From TrEMBL:
Principal location listed in the UniProt entry: membrane
Membrane-spanning parts: 32-59, 71-89, 124-146
Protein name per its UniProtKB record: RDD family protein
Localization terms from the record: Cell membrane
UniProt membrane topology term: Multi-pass membrane protein
Domain of life: Bacteria
Family annotation (InterPro entries): Pra-immunoreactive (IPR051791), RDD (IPR010432)
Positions of the RDD domain: 26-161
Pfam families: RDD (PF06271)
Keywords linked to the UniProt accession: Cell membrane, Membrane, Transmembrane, Transmembrane helix
Taxonomic lineage of the native organism: Bacteria, Pseudomonadati, Pseudomonadota, Gammaproteobacteria, Pseudomonadales
Amino acid sequence: MDNLQNPYQAPQAELTINSAAQPLLASRWTRLGAALIDGLIMSLATVPVAYFSGAFAAAQQGIEPSLGQQLLSLVVGVAVFLLVNGHFLKNFGQTLGKRLLKIAIVNLDGQVPELGGLLLKRYLVWWLLAYIPLIGALLVMVDYLFIFRGDRRCLHDLLAGTRVVQLPR
């Protein structure tokens, strides 16, 4: 029976996939690996700061770090992040971990996002949210759990209008 005889049949169209227009999304495991590499690199710089500022000793005694220690950690963390990743983010949409694992952050048009918006929406907002007592850690966890959506975009991706794609090998 063709469309003229069945008015309820769904319209038919030839489906073609243009793989050049849509790069493959980075796998969840590759994104996790890149985040672990980035976290290790950041730890190499920020743990000594925590040690020398006294935050490490206070934490060992169960004392919450002072606001000054927390602000110092944030400022040092942001500075180190920019020193390590700023060039790669601006030019390639990659942190060092993403670069090593050959994945990149792109906007929804497939282009490297503008650095200012990327830093503000994809990173700084979430770093600041993490400092909110009680709910900060929950918000960050919910952000990361969004990776299990079909499009693999976390909340930070949705806010920044980005996605993470696999680069050609």
